[in-house]
Amino acid sequence: MSNHPSDSHPSGMPIITVIGDGQLARMMHTEAIELGQSIRLLAETPDTSAAQVIHNIVLGDYRNLDDLRAAAAGASVVTFDHEHVPTEHLHQLVSEGVNVQPGPRALVFAQDKLYMRQRLAEIGAPVPKFADIQTQADAIEFWTAADGQVCLKARRGGYDGKGVWFPADRNELQTLVETLLSQDIPLMAEQKMPLIRELSALVARTPSGAMKTWPVAQSVQRNGICVEAIAPAPNCKFADSATSLACHIAQSLDVTGVMAVELFETADGIWVNELAMRPHNTGHWTQNGCVTSQFEQHLRAILDLPLGSTRCLGEHTVMANVLGGEEDPDMPMFERVFNVWARFADAKVHLYGKDWRPGRKIGHITICSDEPLQALRRRAELAAHYLVHATWADGYLPEKD
User: Fold this and answer.
1) pLDDT confidence of residue 159
2) pLDDT tens-digit profile of 163-199?
3) Contacts for 129 with CB less than 8 Å, ≥ 6 apart
4) Residue 379 half-sphere exposure, CB side, CA atoms within 13 Å?
5) Which end of the chain is more exposed for a tag (fewer CB within 10 A), N or C?
6) Per-residue b/e over 108-133, b at no fewer than 16 CB within 10 Å?
7) pLDDT at residue 373, rounded to an integer
8) What pLDDT does 4 receive?
9) Neighbour-count burial of 12, counting CB atoms closer than 10 A to its CB (0-12 exposed, 13-18 middle, 19+ buried)
């Protein structure tokens, strides 16, 4: 482990330690600059997304307690870019007087999907039928109970479609369970829902209990990865109940900071899919669509500061993820951004400093507008496609002087 030589920061202003070095930490840093705060980063290497732009870095491993202690030393609060820090380490830091937000008693429900399901069921939140899977017999019993509508999940560590399986029949389920348990992967199963669409309810909560919510967004998924977020979710009859549910969960689990409640919408209502106790991909639209973004609000919340307005700045906001294609064009990304802006001057481009890799999230486009929603979605989609492929999907050719 080594420290970056510069540890300078404004006198009397908070230092926020962020565990994790991805794009969420990078975008927290953007807001911290405007607030006069300083981010200290626990990073694995000095060239990761957040480490490229943050000067106060501790190089280390989030699974190592001493590295966590070094990053937390003297900080006003410790928070997270991801949920994977061992819970026992966080409990130890809390016992040593470190201000950890969200705390480990809440964070464990974002780390372990079975614990999450069990706790949500206890507080009366709507969850799909689920079961702990420790043997093949458990899996077959659940297959029967769920009429074959089974989603098998790794209890820990899965994201963006990873750690999720949809077996086609009993034999495939048995084989999956046997293979995964032999690799010491704890499993759970839940019933597949008759999904209409996915929603995301975002809430911020302070240690004092104050809460603010944003309009419920629609999340568009492809291959288990969010490709688009639309806010507010169009024609959403469950928006009020989704917002109330998010607040109920945040209060019941004593969540602090921003929490995203990912929801399944069915004909009969809404059901909790996942919890994320940090800023979330489905909330990136708030950067340019609201008075206060999820990143600024997270920093306010974990420091127990007054929360900002979440009023929308336009009728609709669309966020389109920029996901690496099968090939990376020769055109430099700087030139691609130039061409996007030349066509769509109101497109906000957010790049993460990540190298190309197929399917990798390397940035996103956000556009806030009062224009018809379908036209707005098409523009955001075209802009994101151009950043990936360096070609216009609609055949657009700029006028020549």
Assistant:
1) 66
2) 899 999 999 999 999 999 999 999 999 999 999 999 9
3) 145, 146, 190, 191
4) 23
5) C
6) bbbbbbbebbebbeeeebbbbbbbeb
7) 98
8) 45
9) exposed
